[in-house]
Amino acid sequence: MARKAxxxxxxxxxxxxxxxxxxxxxxxxxxxxxxxxxxAVVAAGAFAWRAALAWRRQPLPPRWLLILVTLAGTAGVxxxxxxxxxxxxxxxxxxxxxxxxxxxxxxxxxxLAVVLLAYFLTLAQFFEDQSIPVAATMLGTxxxxxxxxxxxxxxxxxxxxxxxxxxxxxLQAVPFMLILFILFPRVxxxxxxxxxxxxxxxxxxxxxxxxxxxxxxxxxxxIAFRVKFDGPVPPKKEMYWRGPxxxxxxxxxxxxxxxxxxxxxxxxxxxxxxxxxxxxxxEPHNKPWLFALELPExxxxxxxxxxxxxxxARKPVRERLRYPITSHTxxxxxxxxxxxxxxxxxxxxxxxxxxxxIGAGWTADGSSAERRVERAIDFMRxxxxxxxxxxxxxxxHVADEFLFEHKRGxxxxxxxxxxxxxxxxxxxARVVTGYQGGEHNPVDDTWVIRQSDAHAxxxxxxxxxxWVRVDPTAxxxxxxxxxxxxxxxxxxxxxxFLAGQGLDxxxxxxxxxxxxxxxxxxxxxxxxxxxxxxxxxxxGMDSPDWRKMAAWLAGLTGLVLLLLATTMLWRxxxxxxxxxxxxxxxxxxxxxGLPRRAWEGPQDYADRVAAxxxxxxxxxxxxxxxYAGLRYGKALPNSLxxxxxxxxxxxx
Length: 652
Prior knowledge:
By secondary structure, this protein is of the alpha+beta class. The protein is 47% helix and 13% strand. 32% of the residues are buried.
């Protein structure tokens, strides 16, 4: 039995090959920094190899060689990630496949696989970063891939024509994108498990404090969180954003004490104290704590408060979080756990002996705790301590060296030394870390708190008042509290780039960028189920649920399809009556296996048909002559009627 002949497959044209290369490179470049260096080099080598073959018009490598290279690349991914599944390993493997597919693509159907892989890898760019620049890069990659897809069906299209077609297709998709974005049920949680492993390298406050830790963090311009006040705004010097509380001193390092969950508010707000309502948009930092002005009244959703006044999320903050909160500036705490107070008095034996000796001398006269706090502040002020971003290295006795020797330090040195002084007098004290101040963005009226605003201060226990904030940094650098970091440090200290002076024009641009970025975060990346339901309610959808959303989705999608179809039909070129008759005749010949070629005019086509079908030669030549006269020349008055009759009787 004879084998059925396989249909002829047209090979890729040189133009199609270059379009596929451009698509692969556009998808590869944004992902190259995210994959292991060896893999980025292998993929780049595959693209260069294919470009060299296309430039020299040489044949593709044999399949056995490609199979070996593919197996080697797969083995490399397996060794690198210990798996072939998951986010990072999956993206790396697909990148290898797309690069090597370039060396195997021979026909348009192979090109289609390259384009589809490029589309998926374009989506993978969002796995690591979801910022506006990344979205713009993704849009550019999609535009190139769509133009390559159009080139697979129109091999001779010019680049300008293909880009225009791709742009028109993407613009037509925008209404559907908006409808799906607004009405498709939102999934709570990050994309494809993100960011389980994407935020392992994020910087932010730690749950420990040693000399130099906050100092290093304060040289970063990265945004920690944004705040939008709903009403009055506190003075900048009162903006203390509370974070981890550190009660245990282990040598040079401060660590958290034992804090329990507080089911009720562990303090009583003073009725006459100012109250501030605001919304925090917290950047992911891979830690559980949340930040709020001292001291918060309510607890955000999926969070809890602790006995040392911290706010904790139930899981590490691995995606951008938005929560409303209300804070009081003055509170009273009547009692505290005895074990907590005992831990807040404890000092390691033999550590910082000179500081402990000074503090112990203030207890002889039986002065009150308030008086001992005043003495400690006066003592630190008399020491003429220097607030600097370049503190010298310290040894074991950090407080002694800071207070009596080099006298230069950052906020953690001030806070730690003050707490050691207080504990040596018997007054319970602890270190609080967080952020202080912020920068007001007048463009969107938000406050931006950056890592450079990281700060450490102290709390002391005073009977009848509870835990009271004391910021010893203000003894030497009040400008740090009242203004900003740049106003407090000595000239020549390293500062974040945008914290320097004389950059007002650049700061104005930054404010505008921050406002745009904040809107992107709030309404695109932060468009969670709650915001979706809120928006749908504003749009008039009462009690929106998945049934109503599905009905609206189907209705609006159908309406947009109808509008697009109507527009396309309206803009379709209308055929004149002579052309319709000519197309009827050529359609009949096409069924006989004689389609008209794109370059053939009526007479040339009629001559070719006459040679193939001699019996129909007179009819087709007459029809072609009538059509040519009506279309391009001077036709007789009854030519259209004669053409219609000839075509009606034409049966090749």
